[in-house]
Amino acid sequence: MVAKAKKSEKVPKVMQVIFDLITAITDNFAVQHLNAEYATLIRQATAALCRKRPSPLKSGRDRSWACGISHAIGMANFLFDSSQDPYISASELYAWFGVSSSTGQSKSKQVRDMLDIGQLDPEWCLPSNLGDNLLAWLISVNGLILDPRSAPPQVQEQLAAASLIPYVPDPLDADYPLSHN
To answer: Best exposed site among 21, 33, 82, 178 by fewest CB in 10 Å?
Structure first.
């Protein structure tokens, strides 16, 4: 397994204005309906799209892209599931951005395809949900899929240093799923 590159908000200078326009919209949306974790992931996704050659954000309306990016990150984190917090319906999201559902869904699909975002995607998961996201913890060792939270702490530290797992979990945490007997 190869470590993934760290996400960033850096964008090429020629894309800075577009990045700023889109993230001003998404930051406002996040303040009103989401949280700081969502705002950060949406900004990072926007920056990743700005770095694409050519950037798809050069064409189309800023509000449409802002909606599509927010929707894509929301889908990865079950934003549209009423049992989750925060929660907003997809139709409310489209209405807030002032776009039709077909436009919002289309832009979201483009974003998900370009950034390879899927549900429970560890790379686009809210940091507060990583501990509960099994996909963030699975690694392949000689073709065998393992959850390294059952490995000795030294092994976990090496895996975290190599960015193969998100962090070294605290075995004293009440939510820690496995014990080290």
So the answer is: 82
